[in-house]
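Handout, page 2. Input:
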Amino acid sequence: MAPSATLAVDAKAKALRQAGEDVIGFGAGEPDFPTPAYIVEAAERACGEPANHHYTPTAGLGELREAISAKTLRDSGLEIAPSQVVVTNGAKQAIYEAFAALLDPGDEVLVPSPYWTTYPEAIALAGGVPVPVATDESNGFHLTPEALEAALTPATKVVLFVSPSNPTGAVASREEVEAIGRFAVEHELWVVTDEIYEHLVYDGRRAYSLPVVVPEAAERCVVVNGVAKTYAMTGWRVGWLAAPLDLAGAVANLQSHLTSNVANVSQRAALAALEGGLDPVVAMREVFDRRRRVIHRMLEECNGVVCAEPEGAFYAFPSVKALMGRRIAGRLVNDTIELAEVAIEHSKVAVVPGEAFGAPGYLRMSYALADSELAEGVARLGKLFATAE
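Output:
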């Protein structure tokens, strides 16, 4: 398995900062806001409750699973029973466990590319075969049934669907979601749909839940979500999956041997978050919206950069293909791995190379950082790229 490129870049940036370097990091995918106070206070109270000092059900606290059921109906219109929910140590664990329960050796999973770095690793670890399905900036990185059809083989078992997308920021329209859902139903495929960025959409867009748009797909659909992005709770490690009962039971069995229950204090914090409504994400979304416009405009002004405007999440995914094969700051740059090295060495700017997402020639840049750092960081890249010869 390859290490997480996004976490590696973030760790390098933090290490340089600790060493006194003025590094600006565009690597980590986490809100730069503190967890709302009412959630923290709920966790503080939970620490003093003896019931939280002991094992609890593997699949999650009953109250939390009920709250997830209610939240899912409220936010996406999908009706699920609490018994269909398994609470996990972040959405990342939910993804791993879903593929572990679904895949037999050799089963293929259609993975929209560019993709988040963890998806192929989770599939491969379960014995499956990730099959990249290419998208590009010509249509805003939107997945099409035609592209899926071209990648389909007799070994295909699962379609991975992600909207809003990490790393591209693409948000599928209702018509696109319906087309992909109908493709899955027609070919009797499972769908694993990652909805972690559901509330971070801009310009009046909406994130549509595939099993709501295509109800016939629900019996073969796993919905992954969590509190990390919506409530600035990445460090609390609470995610979940919702699945048909037999699959949810299999995942709970696996988790019982893997980690047991998620930390009870974190579960209590997640319960407070879900019961507290969506005000925190509304405030964050306004800030992210402003930042995405700034980063898009500034990147488009950089030499050799073309950037599709992000539609959701908090990432820009600029193409720097025009800079490949050129000398930048005196060094010949052949790929975006080398370009990222030059950026951190010469400009003290940390970015994630596109190779980590199956997309050489691109960079992923999180705009979940302070406005002043964002502007300074892109300005530094602009000066660096201007040296290209």
